[in-house]
Amino acid sequence: MSAQGQQLDQELVEAAAHVARTRCRGDNHTIAAAARARDGRIVTGVNAYHFTGGPCAELVVIGAAAAQGAYELETMVAVGDRERGVVPPCGRCRQVMLDYFPGMRVIVGDGGTKGSERLRAVGIAELLPSTYVWADHQLSEE
Q: Residue 129 and residue 76: Cα distance in Å, rounded?
């Protein structure tokens, strides 16, 4: 990754961390996410936890990006509130990201201890080995 790319990735992590610190309140909103669109815009969002289910922060960002006309997201990261650091996407979010943006990169940690964890950007397909691509399994209308 280029020095420019590393700088942009850090900017994305900082954007998500800022939202996690300033907008996550209580148990309803505990994760913030940020994504960079192809045009350079950064879109942020928070999860909406509810006992009946609710969207993860990554899914909120995808919807918010679409509402803002940013249809081509390139990189995404999620950060936990209360200084929990970068949080990898859940399985559902991984699948949605793959289906919507198969070339997307996701910033994840290496699993090290807090404060010493190294961040890296990986392709979404790397987070889903033996991927299921929904479009590949639809009946053709011949």
A: 19
DSSP 8-state symbol, 40: S
Look up residue 26 and give its DSSP letter.
T
Q: What sections of the chain are H helices per DSSP?
A: 3-23, 57-67, 91-100
58 carries an active-site annotation: yes
pLDDT tens-digit profile of 44-79? 999 999 888 889 999 999 999 999 999 999 999 999
Distance CA 139, CA 137 (A): 7
AA letter at 7: Q
- Count of other CB atoms within 10 angstroms of residue 11: 13
pTM of the model: 0.86
Cα-Cα end-to-end distance for the chain: 43
Catalytic residue among 11, 58, 141, 142: 58
**What number of residues does the chain have?**
142
